[in-house]
Amino acid sequence: MNEGIEAREPARVRVHDELPSQPLLPVSFYARDARDVARQLLGKWLVRRSRHGMCVVKIVETEAYLAEGDPACHAARGKTPRNEAMFGPPGRSYVYAIHSRWCFNIVCQAEGEPAAVLIRAAEPVYGDAVMKRLRGGCRRLDWLRGPSRLCEALAIDKRLNHWPLYRPERLFVVGSPDPSLDEEKIGVSPRIGVTSAHDLRLRYFVDGSPYVSGPRKWHARPIERWTVRPH
DNA sequence: CTGAGGATAGTCT
DNA sequence: GACTATCCTCAGA
Questions:
Q1: Is the CB of A103 less than 7 A from some atom of nucleic acid strand C?
Q2: Span CA (A228) to C1' (C10), Å
Q3: Which of A48, A78, A14 minimizes the C-alpha distance to A160?
Q4: Rounded Cα gap, residues A1 and A16, in angstroms
Q5: Does residue A214 reach within 7 angstroms of strand C, measured from its CB?
Q6: Helices of type H across chain A
Q7: Is pLDDT at A61 greater than 80 in this prediction?
Q8: What is the distance in angstroms measured between the alpha-carbon CA of A186 and the sugar C1' of C7?
Q9: Å between A113 CA and B12 C1'?
């Protein structure tokens, strides 16, 4: 049908009448180094359509887990039933449980090169009533502040493991590069809760955003600068 | 506001 | 049996 058009221009998606249409992130966005993907996911909209309703959230905090030289990566010691999704093609989800809570990752790089980005925190954009209900009515600031809180607010669980994120259906990401998110507004720090590889600074966050998780003192100022690369 | 402690269950050795 | 890419509560400043 219109495959030729879609190959040239990314499909635009209007997720709600009141929200502007946005380009859908294609597979090629994810088929790169997880550090670039993690950095450039900041400011993008994650869209979730579930039986509870539709939610749109703006990503404000991510972490990269690398295929090479990263002992904290779940795939560092080879393939297991749990981390299988990381070894698959990029652009799909990797959902796993920790302490009886879910964490949502996006697989990056290439098949057989297990890298991923953990989505750690986001800001509510649309669907307040749904997220408030799923989060038990806690403060709006805390609905999406932490990887497992985010999963709870968006009804993300193991059933969405291996899910393709480049189709505008149940779960996907839209957005274009945000010129206001230059390197001075991006903070970089060690990853939270990771006991090994503390020398690696692979956590990225929108500096100053109240929706970012972790100790406040960590985002008092950016710890390191990061060069924006186009995509 | 911060830090400590404990609940909790899936995963791997 | 040990570990964990978490979260909540509580005590104290």
A1: yes
A2: 42
A3: A48
A4: 25
A5: no
A6: 3-8, 27-30, 34-41, 128-134, 147-153
A7: yes
A8: 26
A9: 21
The more confident residue out of A153 and A229 is A153
Looking at per-residue pLDDT, the higher value among A117 and A218 belongs to: A117
Q: How far apart are CA A56 and CA A131, in angstroms?
A: 10
Look at phi and psi of residue A75 and say left if phi exceeds 0, alpha if psi is from -120 to 50, else beta. Answer: alpha
Query: What's the CA gap between A103 and A213, in Å, rounded?
Result: 14
Do the Cβ atoms of A50 and A155 come closer than 8 Å? yes
Structural domains in chain A plus CATH codes: 20-219 (3.10.300.10)
Provide, in whole angstroms, the distance separating residue A99's CA from nucleotide C4's C1': 7
Q: What is the pLDDT of residue A3?
A: 56
A13 DSSP β-pair partners? A22
The gap from C-alpha A82 to its chain's centroid, in whole angstroms, comes to 19
Residues A74-112 pLDDT 10s? 999 999 999 999 999 999 999 999 999 999 999 999 999
Q: Which residues, 6 or more positions from A66, have their beta carbon under 8 angstroms from its beta carbon?
A: A33, A34, A35, A73, A115, A200, A202
Q: Which nucleotide is nearest to A97 (CA to C1')?
A: B10
Give percent of chain A above pLDDT 90.
79
Give chain A's mean pLDDT.
Answer: 90
Residue A198 is given by DSSP the state T
User: Residue A227 has what pLDDT?
Assistant: 41
User: What is the CB-side half-sphere exposure of residue A22 using CA atoms within 13 A?
Assistant: 24
Return d(Cα A191, Cα A61) in angstroms, integer.
11
